[in-house]
Each structure stands twice: as C-alpha cells, then as structure tokens.
Amino acid sequence: MASSQHVLLSPAELSYLHSSLSLTPPIRPDGRSPTQYRPLSAETGILPGTNGSARICFADGTEAIVGVKAEVEKTKRRWDDDAIYSENQPTEGEGQQQPGRDGDNGEESGSSEWVELTVEIPGYRDDDSGTIFLGQMLSEALLADGGFVRKLRINRRFHWRLYLDILLISPPLSYPLPLLSLTTHLALLATRLPKLKSEGDEDPFFDDDWAAAPYLYPRDPSNKQKVVERPPVTLLVMAVGGNIIFDPSKEELAVADVALAVSIGDDASTAQQIQGGDKMDVDSFSHGSGSGRNLKLLSIRTVDPPSRLTPPGVANAANSAYGHAQVVSSAGAGGNSQKMPEARQTESEAVEGVWKPPRGGAKAIVMGALVQKVLIRGGVADEVLDALEGVDTS
Amino acid sequence: MADRRRINGPPGSTMPPVFEDDAGQPEVKSGKGRDRAPTAIRKMFLKTGVTPSASGSAYLEFEKSNKSDVSGLKLSCTVHGPRSLPRSSPFSPHIVLSAHVKYAPFATKQRRGYLRDPSERDLGTHLETALRGAIIADRWPKSGVDIIISIIEGDQDREASKSQGDETWDMMNALSGCITVASAALADAGIDCVDTVAGGVAALVQDAGDDSTPRIVVDPIPSEHEKVLGACCIAYLPTRDEVTNLWFKGDLPASDAGLYTQLVENGIQASRNANRVLVECLGETTS
User: Region annotation Disordered: residue ranges (chain B) (predicted)?
Assistant: First the structure.
C-alpha cells in the first residue's frame, strides 16, 4: 500500500493544515504534541498456534496482528564449508565433542533467507509495490546487523526458519508503518523457541515442555521481565515548514515536505561497555546518565510524501472566474502562458493560503535534523521503547 | 532401494568446484583491494536515445573494476510517455509516474525469474520516490509516463560463495545507476524536471587486514572490501541542493552522529560526480 493513497482534502483544507502545522508550536488536528504518539492498546500471546504473537490497536481505529511461526530447516552447505572449518578450527575432531554452540566460533553467521516476512493489507494486492516497500523496510531493519539471524542458528547443520506474518486487520486509515513496526516488535519479544535437548551437530531434538522454552530475545536472569536486547523499531517522522512531527496521521502526511522512516535498535551490550569504560561522552552527562539508551541507527528510507500528488489550489489572481485571468496573461509571460493555461496557473508565485504541492526534494540538513531528532538521547525513540517495555510479553 | 551398482551423483543440486589460483595464497575475500581514491567513482559511459521506438531512452555502463571476474553494471532505460491515461483510470491533476526495474534473468550470479521479485519492486519504489521530486508533475495533468529499466548486467563477483550477503549492498549501486540513467532518459523524452537528478553511493567499509579501521568510500564494490558496515544511496539535485531520496542501511551507533553525516556528504559528492557525466552527455546530444 502506497503512502500516496488518495487523500480527500481540498486545496484549501491542505493549505490550512499546512499553515497550522508550520506554526511554532505546531497545532495538529488531533491536538497531539509534535513528538506524541497516538495512544495505543497492546497485548501479546493472543494466538496460541504461533511461537509468538501480538496485537496493537491505535486510537484512530487501526489494528494489526502479527504471528511468528518457526520451523526447523536443514542449513544448505556451501562448497567451501569444510575449508572454512579446517581453517578456523584446526582441531576439528575436538570441536565435535564440545557441547553446544560454544564449540562454534563466533563468526558463524546466518543467512537473511532464514527470515520470511510478509505484510498483508486489506484491499491491496500482495504484489502492490507499496506493500512490498513496507515489508522490505521492516525486514531490512531486522536483518541490518546480522545479530538476529545468528539467534536462529541451532547447530552447524540446522537452523530455525522464521515466518513473520503481519496482518493489518482494519482498513488502512493512516500510513500503517509505525503500527506494523511496533506490533512486530512486540511479537518478536514474545516469541519463544522450544528448548534444545540435543548437543552439538546432532539432529535437533527438543524439550516438549513449552514452559521451559526460552525466549528468542533472552531475558535478564535476575529480573524476568527485563529484556536484555530488543528488536528494532521503525519510526515515521516528517517535516513541515520548520517543524518535525512524529507519527503523522494520514492528513498530516498529505502536507509533509519530507517524510522519513528511521529504524533504530537498542544496543544493550554496548551500553554496558560504554558505561563501564571511561568512554562516556559529555552528551550523556548533560541528559543525566542512566536515562536514555544506546540507540543504533539501522536504516533510513525516504517515504514518498503524498503531498506531491495533491491537487494545487488556484489563486484568485489567476482564477478566470474572478475576471483576473486577462490581467495576468497580459502582464505575465505573454504568448507562452496563452498556449498553456495550466502552466500559467501553476507556475505562479506562491500565494499565502493557496496550496501548492511541494516540488523538488529536501535539504540534506533537514533530513539530518529529522534523523538527529529520532536518535537524540531521551527523545521519542526512548519514550517509545520505554512504553513498549511496559507491555507484558511473557 | 538405492542403486548400489552404479556411482550416482548427489541427489540435490551442487555448486561447481572453484579452484584457487594459487594454493599458497591465504584465502582472502578480496583478490585485489580498491585502487581508486576513496572519493572517486568509477568511470561511466552514458548515452541517450538508444531505443528509437521509445520517447526517451538511455544506456549506462560502469567501468569494470580491476578484478577480471567482476563485471560492470549495465543498465538500459526507456521512457514511454507522457501519454494519456486510459479512460478507466481516475482523474489525476499530475503526471502518473510508474517505474519498473527488472534484472535480466542472466544479470546476476543467481538466475532471476521473469517476474519481478520483491527486491526489484522495492528498487522501483525507491526510483519512483527519487524521480517524483525531480519531475514537474503538474505540467501534465491526466497523463502517465512509464519508466522501464532493465539491468542487463549486475555488478557481481563471479566467484561463488565468497561474496555471500553482498547482494544487499549491490542493490544500492544498482539503485544509484537506475536514478542516473532514468534521469537521462527523462531528459531525452523532453519531460520537464526541476533539475537532473543523479544517484550516488557512499559506504563505510572495513578492509582486509587486522589493523585497518573503518573508512568511508564512495561507489563501493563489496567484493573489494572485507566487510561493508553501512551504506547510503542518495538521489541529489545539484542546482537546488536538495535530496529527493535517501536510503541508508547498516549498523551505526547513534552516539556517533558525525559518521552518518559524513556518509551522506560523501553520497552527495558521489552523485555530484555522476551528475557531471549526465550533464555532459545531455550537452553532447543537444549540440
């Protein structure tokens, strides 16, 4: 589903919306602050047939469910596998006897083919380019740092294949990216894989006690609710005038100058390292140490803002219904505008209160500012992750 | 019952053996490293008007790298339109842009089918975003334009298995080429744009060797480096100094914001370089 679905707003409404969002502070149609998310209700573990599932319902009525299913699959051997092993592990025979995954070297990586992510949006075809764009964006964030697929490794011969099925069950009332991303995040947190009983490179054999199944994202042993590492989250952020607005609704997105989807990850392991060492930067002091996470930037994509497809308004000066058209054409470029009445209409100067779809791109500085605003310590990303931590995922 | 009298082949598909050139050489992923300067893009060849039946067309070829078995990127783009929309479609105050990107089945190491797979559709969406910012869309109400790009040869290492996972980074290079060639074809078709948009890629790479620190290079070839840590592809309008599409992928710590900014700046620089070729090519055609 494209971000540029039809927005049924007139040029006058668009102009009004644009100017009210450009104010400082901006006035949003639903009264939120620029960094505020829509209120949502979330639950996990709703589908007993899955390894992990979640449901999120936004206040505007959009609702998504995500089911995660896992299958054991034989890892395809590559022709030079033996070469790699003999090189990295000179004592191949002893390596066999070492129990568990510790015997394998840490460089063992998975393949991105082990994760299959599909997005289903009602009313849109599976191969709709917008739907595929959403799916690619979500899987890109998940696979960005190779750490996720490493979790799916069972042993040298077998691995888990994970199917993430993302369903939007309400009609797409707004661009569903934030909703789908948050739901996927929760579903992955709730995902458990059966406990492995076999050792080494044996055919995998699992504990049939579901209560003993470990989480895909391991919990802190001291505090069962605390998750050590968290899946990525994709935030939708847009710029209007000089303002930066998070989680825009469909109408707000229709007047965006630029919209970005920024995926971030929460890196708990490096956070401890930095806290432990004396690498702590001045930045973290100023925001109060302890608050704020160590975020990492995983991916950024430009979302085609639907504002470019909105109908332009016609200024009174160019509107023949007001009898001004003659004046403009005689004063204006002359013959050229006579031949192309549309050109005369749209090439005119920007008039206050008359909507003009944005043309061209955005300054690199503006995009940089959007990304900065997402990544700032103690910012919206932290708030979102804190809020998601409050959801019971056990 | 297995047939024991004959020596049967393996039941599944196998990879053909690849022999090393020199048995004494340690196995390094990159046979030869990068020999260009970090801020230099590969040479490219661009020509417009190659397909007479289309209203605009262009062909782009990147220089082969120094490695013998790495082929350069070859792209062909045709633009059909602007033409009137079919009667059944709803009214549009703007030109309706549709971009198709397709790898030829033989373009990559792994054969691609004839149907577009998700990664190709994804490239099409990126391309659409990049071009929509450049086209002055309201000059053609009620009309549509189709931009069709076929990637005749992908930018890939022929050596099996050593470049596992590089495909994702190759997509960035392919996209930057797509943007440049589509921009040339749009100009050839006479469709008004605010500026010529060109694509550029910058990447943070780790070279082979223990003591090398990550560095930023433009127009990266993944097989020339040990590991690509992050890359960004940028579509840039030089005269307006604006970015129409930004695609970043990788794993950067948020505390190091300078790294991201540098990547973007290098990407812009790469696309400026590509734009110079583009402008020169268009100048040749008009003169």
Answer: 1-36
